[in-house]
Amino acid sequence: MAEQTQEIVHYPTLKTILAIEKAVEKADIAISRNKIIDALPTKVMRSTLNVALDYMEKRGLVLETKKGFIWTFNPNKRLAIAEAEGLEV
Q1: Whether the Cβ atoms of residue 51 and residue 11 lie closer than 8 Å to each other
Q2: What pLDDT, on a 0 to 100 scale, did the predictor assign at position 1?
Q3: What CATH number labels 14-85?
Q4: 4, 8, 28, 88: which has the highest count of C-beta atoms within 10 A?
Q5: What is the pLDDT of residues 23-63, one digit of tens each?
Q6: Domain ranges in the chain?
Q7: CA 77 to mean position of chain CA atoms
């Protein structure tokens, strides 16, 4: 089965990605795409938001759930060491 590719009309700028990161990270609970757009200081096209969220999800910064997006990135070095040295069951 061939993978569908969608043409990207507009790529997000670094400023946009950082604003989206901040909005998701500050949220206490899962935040929907609409709430993210409302929380941003500037207007962002939905397709641009989707590209940024896909990028962030692939990098392990956010996770999409049924209720929205949650921040998952943890820069703790001890956690990274534990993951690298841990025993996989």
Answers
A1: yes
A2: 43
A3: 1.10.10.10
A4: 8
A5: 999 999 999 999 999 999 999 999 999 999 999 999 999 99
A6: 14-85
A7: 21
